[in-house]
DNA sequence: CTCAAAATATAGCCCAAGCTATATTTATTA
DNA sequence: TAATAAATATAGCTTGGGCTATATTTTGAG
């Protein structure tokens, strides 16, 4: 039992949940990138790269801290916790796989890169595994 | 010129915009389905199928009306405008194509159906065309 | 070392999307 | 046809995610 097909409501609720973590995923990925590129992640740089105002970035960083993904001290940069760094790595790998899959099925590179930024957050582990298998075929 | 590669900020902003219309797309698709299935779209049925409380559905229908996608009179059902019906058709077709593409690259059917509910809203026309071409190949 | 500039924080606003509780209207049935 | 049940609307709350304006802190010149 335990295995009736998911209802419409289940499916919609699941999509809503994924959406609510999408922004957090993009932030941790970006913070990880900034630290790798420049040694630190300043709020001003995060805001700039995300395309939002500085107070918006500050507020989202506060949420990352609340959720145990980042740390920071006033007027200092932002750092990822272990959990945050692990999430960033997973998110970055998934992002790349999604872009590669889109290109592999014939999506032009620029469209692939643009669409992947939203698509990635809805790709489950099962789908990701399928994408990887598809990319490995020949 | 007009063709520098999109910045990170552009890409993130675009994903945020798509996200803001995702719920409207799901609602018009669902309202169209209900009308096709049962002849009418009651707020209670919309809420039920979306997995939200009734006042939440009422409020979102109000937004659909504000955006010219639906109409309704107090204590009566919900109807789609021409624009709403056209959007519903496009969204439904895109939804099906996304599910088919996922299955075609090896995603198990249930995962495909679940993930498509979120993915669909980020698939651009260019990507959709590529998906269709890929599905038509042999 | 001081002071101006840059970075960050804070205050306060908006809207979307969710909720519960309750009032109102419509539909049904005794 | 009244009374009850069901559907819908409304009020009022929460949180997330955006913004501008401004206060505060840190940094870097001179
Ligand atoms: Mn993204
Ligand atoms: Mn990404
Ligand atoms: Mn959807
Ligand atoms: Mn859909």
What do you see in this structure?
Two copies of one chain form a homodimer. Chain A is mainly α and 138 residues long. Chain A has two domains: 8-81, Arc Repressor Mutant, subunit A, CATH 1.10.10; 86-136, Diphtheria Toxin Repressor, domain 2. Chain A is built from six helices and two strands, in the order αααββααα. Chain A has helices at 8-38, 43-50, 54-66, 82-104, 109-119, 125-136, and strands at residues 70-72, 78-80. The first copy, chain A, has a two-stranded antiparallel sheet with strand order 1-2. In chain A, strand 1 and strand 2 form a beta hairpin. In chain A, helix 1 packs across helix 2 (43-50) and helix 4 crosses helix 6. The longest helix of chain A is centred in the N-terminal third of the chain and has 31 residues, at 8-38. The first copy, chain A, is globular. The first copy, chain A, starts with 7 loop residues before the first helix and ends with a helix. Chain A binds chain B through residues 5-15, 18-19, 22, 26, 30, 48-51, 101-102, 105-108, 110-115, 117-119, 121-124, 126-127, 130-131, 133-134, and chain B through 5-15, 18-19, 22, 26, 30, 48-51, 101-102, 105-108, 110-115, 117-119, 121-124, 126-127, 130-131, 133-134. The structure holds manganese (II) ion (MN) (4 copies). The structure holds a DNA duplex (30 and 30 nucleotides).
């Amino acid at each position: 039992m335990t295995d009736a097909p998911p209802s419409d409501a289940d499916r919609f609720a699941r999509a809503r949940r994924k959406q609510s973590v999408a922004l957090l995923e993009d932030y941790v990925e970006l913070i990880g990138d900034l630290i790798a590129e420049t040694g630190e992640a300043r709020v001003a740089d995060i805001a700039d790269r995300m395309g939002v105002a500085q107070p918006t970035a500050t507020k989202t960083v506060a949420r990352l801290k609340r959720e145990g993904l980042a740390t920071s001290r006033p007027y200092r940069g932002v750092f990822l916790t272990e959990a945050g760094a692990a999430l960033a790595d997973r998110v970055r790998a998934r992002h790349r796989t999604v872009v590669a899959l889109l290109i592999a099925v014939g999506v032009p590179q620029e469209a692939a890169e643009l669409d992947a930024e939203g698509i990635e957050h809805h790709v489950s582990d099962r789908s990701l595994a399928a994408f990887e298998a598809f990319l490995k075929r020949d």
